[in-house]
Amino acid sequence: MGNRGSDNEASASEPELVHLEPATTAVVRAVVPMADLRDFFDASFGALARTIEVQRITVLSPAFGLYRGSPGETVDLEVGFVTDRAVRPEAGVVVGSLPGGRVARLTHRGSFDGLGSSWERLRSWMGARGLSVGEERWETYVTQPSPNMDPRDLRTELNWPVTD
């Protein structure tokens, strides 16, 4: 899926089906205009870090963004981490969960700009196998982004529950 060697070059692993256990999460939830997505993520991670530290909660995963429905001008999402126990609601941070069961997964490699095509590839793969997609799906940000990194080094795991 690379595109002529530009800085937005991206690729994805082969999709696979995995079985996951449900997971307790600490999250910030909101319906956010697409134009404000980056600011929402930044503010959410700040609130999460403070709350998790004060409550001495152990983070068990990289950061994730869980999306409900299809994004349009706005997106309904939760940003957070899998944790060892439920967080006490504080400063906009609440308890959430990631679903268990069968999940279609692929790993997107490269800039966040290419995530849409990787999601579409996963949807097509599921459709070709007669698998029904769930209304929720999430991205796990395996590689923590930083201002000076090469976007081609980013790894984002795409997870889409299969409904029966």
Automatic annotation (TrEMBL):
Q: Report domain AraC effector-binding positions.
A: 13-163
SUPFAM superfamilies, alphabetized: Probable bacterial effector-binding domain
**Which InterPro entries is this protein grouped with?**
AraC_E-bd, GyrI-like, Reg_factor_effector_dom_sf
- Please indicate which superkingdom the organism of origin belongs to: Bacteria
One protein family per Pfam: GyrI-like
Protein name per Swiss-Prot or TrEMBL: GyrI-like domain-containing protein
Q: Which organism is it from?
A: Streptomyces acidicola
